[in-house]
Amino acid sequence: MTDIVFTRRSGWIPNVIHEHGELKLMLGAGADANHSPRTFTFSITEAHLAVIREDLARHLLLWSAVLPLCDAAGTEGRLDEEAAVALLDPILLSAPADVDALFQRVRWDKGRLIAHGADIGLLESGQVCAAMRAATETSDGERAQEYHADRRRAERGVVLGPLDAAILKYTGQYLHGATVPKRIPDAVDTTLLPQVMRVIATAEQACAGMRIGRDPRRGKRATDKRAWDRMATTVDAAVRRAHPELADDAVRTVSFLMCSEAVDRSRSMPLEDDEETAGDRAEFGGSTRKRILTFTDDKGVEKKWLPDSPRTATGEFWEFVGDRSAADNEVFTIEDEERGEGIQLHFYADSIARVTTVHEGGGGGSEPEYQVEYSLVDGIDGYRTLVSTFVRGGCAALGPHGSWMADAADLERARRRRDAE
Length: 421
Description:
The chain contains 17 helices and ten strands. The chain is of the alpha+beta class.
């Protein structure tokens, strides 16, 4: 039978229990193979219990030193009870100077002590007993996270000023740089918030009118990386000019915020190029275009766009690409059968072919004759322009939008030259 003899308000601080006629310290640490918390116990004496009851600092120091032993036990190993018991007298019953000396020799969990209010400067200087004078039973996990985040930055040689830190807290990236940024004004000291907002305003003005669309070649939610890089570069340059005192981490988090928000705006809209779509609607009104267009992919899947469709042809096509595009499905075609022409997009090679019927097949078994011309394409923006132009004006309208070559070998040589640049 197990009885709890002593416990503190924080449920994670080790408890003292009475089990099978013995006093034991019980603590939860780590997890087993099924991710359930593990519990460890080891024997203590009445003298140890007396100190644990009366001295929060010593109790926390003992916990800090035992935790690495629990980590060493892993998901199913046993706690090294001899090592744990060997820590009891030196930590609970020794003079402060001896405790400080012990903590120079053993592993211990510094973050746990920081979360419970330890003075960081004194901990860093090896004065662990003095550092624990301000210890509290309640834990502040964010304080420990901030400490570890600062340590990681220090290892990279990064030192943040007050405004740098405030900007990172505003975007929610102070603790974890990989976190998607957002706006958290309440996380910033009110005296620094106006300065933070001036930096944000600089970034907003720099990228006003810029957008980051999606890249349906890589799926419906994929981001146009080139547009992201353009916006990030623009924002970085503007913020550095206006606020040269900022650390790189602060500048990057601001550009990350602007780009992330631009992507969110794009993802809330249909998968199409809005500017091109607006042009399509203006020209065709959604229903005045009389010809049917046929979309196909490299797997033989076909979809038709009809003149009475509520969406534009470009919007329907890019939706089709976003749904169907994959690593083994990178060739898409738009065909206008009535005009006898079409385009074929080769996403794997950043190229396009326009195909025009020169001579229809007829009686006597004559085969139709086609003219095929090729051009390189400059990223998703180039593809959007070509698709929209073809939808509006057919192959003839594509002339100014590419360097057209009649020979596929010429296209391959041009592609190699481009890739070598």
